[in-house]
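Lecture notes, unit on protein representations.

Consider one protein chain, 192 amino acids long.
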Amino acid sequence: MRVLSPSAEKICLVAVEQFAESGYDAASLNDIAVAVGMRKPSLYAHFSGKVDLFEAVFERAIEAERLYVEGCFAADDGLPGALYAQQLSERFLASAHLRFLLRAAFFPPADLRPLVSSGFEGYLARMGEVFGKALERQFPQLDGGRRELFVDAYLGVVDSLIVELIYAGQAAYERRLRAMWTIFAASLRASV
């Protein structure tokens, strides 16, 4: 992740909110500059344009959410992955980084699709690695093939929960979480 000046970091904090709420196309560099307390030409002293700013914000969102995921798995004292799945809705509401990351992944700007796809796939791959290591620690008797199967299933659970948050709302998310986690947890316990 590239190192930015304090002013550029402040711009990124405002921009992540704009990109999360409005999307890439509707986000305004002028509005971002005004919210930071500068004029639009001053923003160009830090970023060459909207694409450059988006890339910097995307890097920071990936990093923030990676750290959050790792923290959830480190604090998980039940079944691996339970804490993250159960707190996903709260995190979605509280974190502009997550809202931005998911909006970018589901509705990527056409010119930035390769960057977004690569970054989001890397984020999910890291989540899978962390979940796999947690499974290995808690269920060492689970062979590698079964562990990989559960990693893929867990990522499917998370993906389904994300879709509910984006398209259907809190009640649908809670219903889906109860159903999927009940089946997933029972299947995991039965496998060991």
